[in-house]
Amino acid sequence: MTGSLKKMKTETALIAVCAADLVAFAALKVSPGFFAGIIGILALVMTGYLPVKLQAKLGSLAVLTLVFTLGFASKASGDIFFIGLIGILVVLIRTDRAPVWTKVLIGAAILLASIPFAGFKDTFLFELAIQIGIFAAMAMGLNVVVGMAGLLDMGYTAFFAIGAYTWGIFGSPQAHSFMAGHFPLNGNLMFLFMGLAVLATALTGIIIGLPALRLRGDYLAIVTLGLGEVIRVLANNMDHPVNITNGPQGITPVSRPDIGWFRSALSAIGVPLDARTDYQLFFYFLVLLVIGIVIVVNINLGKSKFGRAWVAIREDEIAARSMGIPMIKTKLYAFATGAAFSGAMGVIFAAQRTFVSPETFTMLQSTTILGMVVLGGMGSIEGAILGAASLTILNIDLLKGFSEYLNELKQGGTVIFGYHLSSLPSQLDPAKYERLVFGLVIIFMMIFRPTGLLPERRRKAEEAEDDDDIPEITETGKGGQS
Amino acid sequence: MSGYAVEVKNLTKRFGGLIAVNEVSMSVKPGEIFSVIGPNGAGKTTFFNLLTGINKPDSGNLLLDGRDVVGLAPEQVAARGVGRTFQNIRLFGAMTVLENVLVGRYVHIRTPYPSALARTPGCRREEKKAAERSLELLDYMGIASRAGELARNLSYGEQRRLEIARALALDPRLLLLDEPAAGMNPQETEELKKLIRALRTDMDLTVVLIEHDMSMVMSISDRIVVLQFGSVIAEGLPAEIRANTKVIEAYLGSGAAAGGGAASSDPATTESRAAAGNGATGEHHA
Amino acid sequence: MLDSLLSLLPQILFEGLLLGFVYAMIALGYTMVYGVLELINFAHSEIFMIGAVAGVEIFRSLSNIIHNGYLLLLVAIVVGGLVSGLVAIAMERFAYRPLRRRGTTNRLVPLITAVGVSFVLQDLVRLIEALWHNEFFLRMASVSDLEGSVTVLGIFIQYKSIVVIVVSLAMLAGLNLLVNKTRLGTAIRTVAQDMDTARLMGINPDRVVSSTFFIGGSLGGVAGVLFALQYTTISPYSGFLPGIKAFTAAVLGGIGNIPGAMVGGLVLGELETLAGTYLPTLTNGTIGTEYKDIIAFLVLILLLLFRPQGLLGQIVKEKV
């Protein structure tokens, strides 16, 4: 491509992006709500994909942040603006050349101002943000196991459950039923229990991993699947003869940390909290903090000898071992680390919900987290975050929203092509078909884009190569070496 | 202490009914460049896999620096100072050139897991040391300029060099090279020869290599052992091997030995032609 | 105490045998696909479930037309086997084959795909049932001439249980003949050995893989019909547990090994039934019957620790 042509293209792109931003702003004035949100997201997509200059791109992102944030001020449902904000974060992360301070500035504006603002307007969005956060942290934990080390863990929720029950039992009156002492424990001990859960789950991971990791990867998949089932059976049935888990009814209420200091600190900076939002905001910030730690740990590991050892084993086990990498120990580190992340998040989950029950910890849950990792891109940290955000929004917002919409249509007696929607079977509830959606997402990603939406730097190259090779390797079956 | 770098006694390995390595005995002195040659399928690579713990021998003894290594896992053998390369290059293609060498430094980086999680100053120091040493090795192999490149994007010759650099990162006392000159042109082979000689003196190494390029084997080796159908059929100085009728027969089939000395340089051409032929068909299937 | 435990034994062994045959037939599907593609086909549990659902639907819609229970069952078995086999072929064609075509080296990719397929199948069945009957927990219609029973040597035996055993035995024998005595069987064994060599010998691996999926799938489907007949309640999600247990059975016998899958299935069926009955009695109810579902998992862990190659198999390791 010649220079001038390229320049012209950049200029056109710049005009297009500016125009889109302006239209989004105007739409906000004219019809604040879903319509403006869609326009904003279109503008965001253009900003992300068109070849505009760096400054223009960052400027556009800043403008759109404002657009989406103002969108919450209107009476309309804020879901679409929320999705827009997440989108901005993703584009921001992927803009490699941007100076760090601009990233921090826009990122902080969204995470510390816009989203809390949205949460105050609509507490459901707080709930959504916290759920995304918990899942993002778990997806990043699973990413260490599946993405970096290439081990398939299908019972990841088991560790989440162990963490949740660890605090659920002792942070509620439940522990009375099998031991003496003063229960529930003080809510502030939750932080201590996060540490205990990390130890407990890492240990469980080692015990379960040891027999399976000596063998081929497939065995780990099935063993972890079994573990997930065992934990569920135990949680359901350990209410007799001694009542430890309270069986299918679950445990409630689970204590939360004391947040008096948090309330006074925020009112000191002019943000008074009420009983409806105080804990939501607290857990939102706590989850952000934990995600921050998880990201740092992930990056640290990736740059350490252990991270390299995982990738080496994933790429070529024989060569890795011939370089002195102890196979079982290395895999165990990955497996236990992932388990520990999940366990810590379980504790937060129990406290935030104040409720623990076996129903939360299903195979569906494990597969959802796996789907997040796959969708975002195995091994990619930002991919895990994007995957968690997309599937969580899809699951607890879009599918449910669609269900409600369909119900309204049914009750309104809507007729499509002569078919009365009211005669649709009551069992046909879109919100109940998350398996179908997740399953399709997984299959399509694996077939058409196995490296995910935001591929890991290492795999990006792999994918490019795959594309070139397609005609040559179509005939290859399994392991063709002499 | 036997005083040998490698000492093999009656080593045997069967795969099902096939005897891949049959009662092989040999010993390599410290500092030697020792070659293992033989026709395709003679059991050379299996022999390397036995040395490095990838396969377990059915019987026999295997001593490295006088210590028994039978039953050790590959990583344990590597930790005892055995570096190796592979016949069909096995780099970690998704990692950079530098990272590949850093993988080889694994046993020398003394970072406990918790300090890797937090990336403590100690961890950083270890990483820095390792990176310096790795760059040194890349420099030694003449590919330092490619350090940030993904390994799979290197040219074939560079990949061969990188594989040696990775093996050297272990700070091995014994280096096993599996057909290092395969696919190289005469000039590259010449450079490789120089490199191997230099390695021996610079890094105080014992080198055992499997090679098909006879001119290289003959000029570089201190001693040579010849395998056929898993058994040793000859052992000795290059000159002795060149004159050995059994060896010539093994390479050219019986009857050719009558031709005598004239065939001496022929094994090389036959072999490389055979290898090239194999390569071509191999690609064809793929 | 001991007397009462012993007097139950023949009955329990018989029940275990029934369960074991069902496990064995499902396990064969896992083991055959594994033998050919080295893939744990997680979605096989759904193939089994689809067979069961098909069986229930046949009973439901035809019991007014076909009054002979055995004939009805025959129809159900044929249809169940066929539907499951065809779904298995479609699954291979549209989900797994594109991956093989691309020559993916990452072993996780097909495995994760299988999980996705499994989920899609569960909800597709649920969707169909929801649209059709507006319910998705199904009960097998009972047909009187299958419900009769006899007592032999103190063992209470329902007629339908005899059918389960007879059909299972016939299917297993048929499979053995197919794999060992026919051209297709030879082709399957060749592809399992080495796909590239098989191609050189003029075997079309894709067709063999399809056939393998069909055979394994229809065995699973028939197992589903028999399962529904014996245990009567079925939902789109009832494939999961029998599936994971049957996989354990396949590992128990040595994965990739056909006689091993049969032996593994029977052993696991007996173990589970014995544990399910005796554990509550022996522990005075402390450990309830619910824990029998954990038995398979414990067996799997112990097996991986002490005999990973299974009872009849060889150790599967990465190729060097």
Verbal overview:
The complex is a heterotrimer of chains A (482), B (286) and C (320). Chain A is an all-alpha fold and 482 residues long. Chain A is built from 18 helices and 2 strands. Chain A has 2 domains: 1-121; 123-372, no CATH class. Chain A has helices at 3-30, 34-49, 54-73, 79-94, 100-121, 123-148, 156-170, 190-213, 217-237, 260-268, 278-303, 305-315, 317-322, 327-353, 363-376, 381-411, 434-448, 457-473; strands at 415-416, 419-420. Chain A has a two-stranded antiparallel sheet with strand order 1-2. In chain A, a hairpin with a 2-residue loop joins strand 1 and strand 2 (419-420). Mean pLDDT of chain A is 84; it is low at 461-482. Chain B is globular. Helices cover 42% and strands 21% of the residues of chain B. Chain B has a 6-stranded mixed sheet, sandwiched between helices. Chain B has 2 domains: 1-81 and 173-243, 3-Layer(aba) Sandwich (Rossmann fold), CATH 3.40.50.300; 94-171, no CATH class. In chain B, helix 3 (97-104) runs parallel beside helix 6 and helix 5 packs across helix 6 (156-168). Chain C has 320 residues and is mainly alpha-helical. Chain C contains 12 helices and 4 strands. Chains in contact: A-B, A-C, B-C. Chains A and C meet through helix 8, helix 9, helix 15, helix 17 and helix 18 of A and helix 3, helix 4, helix 8, helix 10 and helix 12 of C.
For the CA atoms, what is the radius of gyration of chain B? 20 Å
CATH topology annotation of the largest domain in chain B: Rossmann fold
Low-confidence stretches of chain B: 256-286
CATH superfamily of the largest domain in chain B: P-loop containing nucleotide triphosphate hydrolases
Give the overall average pLDDT of chain C: 84
Low-confidence stretches of chain C: 315-320
Give the oligomeric state of the chains in this entry, treating copies of one chain as homo and distinct chains as hetero.
heterotrimer
- Major pleated sheet of chain C: 2 strands, antiparallel
Spatial order of the strands forming the largest sheet of chain C: 1-4
Number of strands of chain C: 4
Q: Give the strand line-up of the largest sheet of chain B.
A: 6-7-8-3-9-10
SSE ordering of chain C: HHHHEHEEHHHHEHHH
CATH class of the largest domain in chain B: Alpha Beta
